[in-house]
Amino acid sequence: MNTDISVTDFIYSGNKLIGTHGQDENSYSDAQIIYNGNKISQIISQRNGSTQVQNDLFYGGIFLTSLQNQYERTEFTYDSNGNIQSKKQFYLNPDQGIEQLASTINYTYQNGNVVQEERTDLQFGNSTTFLNYIYDDKINPTKGMNKYFRLIFQSEGFNGLSSNNPISRSYYQDGNQNSPTVQTYQLEYNTQNYPVRIKRFSENNTLISDTLIEYR
């Protein structure tokens, strides 16, 4: 079995997150986070020292409404509680002036956690996948991060949209709700109730990923 190992460091200036550094066996990546007040205005990403993507973030009042780079645009809408209700991803072709809707995600929340995602891929037959989550009552690793970074951050085992940590994930294609695929998470915590290790297992109990988290 092949094992891929990667490490991501979060870089702070005081209490402000100003960047990330990622390293795997073959390459490294860096992201510089630029602020306007407490709002993130740009995230500039590099791979192996060369700039790849400049993401610009746009706001409507206190809400992040869109994120855009030269290749794609992501649009966010919110529910009455201020949670992200939907996310739409558009592919851009600036040479032809074309913007094409590629995918949508609709979120359902309960007790501060995403309990269902409805994901529709509009590029390959308009297929829709439903993902359902069950959570623990411990603290999400991203709790102390910038709230706008949490909206767009995704890592193996967790993201920033929920208050707690998933312990189970089931998913199925539209029309196959009676035959979901179920994955489970095994977590270890520190004395402050933050997870320090997250293992994800397949339906037949095969280890899919093993995430170690350090706090300072």
Question: Main β-sheet: number of strands, strand sense, barrel status?
Answer: 15 strands, antiparallel
Globally, the shape reads globular
Q: Determine Rg (CA atoms, Å).
A: 18 Å
The portion of residues forming beta strands comes to over 45%
Poorly predicted parts? none
Helix content: under 10%
What letter string, H or E per element, gives the SSE order?
Answer: EEEEEEEEEEEHEEEEEE
Mean pLDDT over all positions? 92
- Give a count of the beta strands, DSSP E runs of length 2 or more: 17
Strand order of the largest sheet: 1-2-3-4-5-6-7-8-9-10-11-14-15-16-17
Briefly note the structural class of the backbone. Answer: mainly beta
Terminal-residue CA separation: 33 Å
The total of helices stands at 1
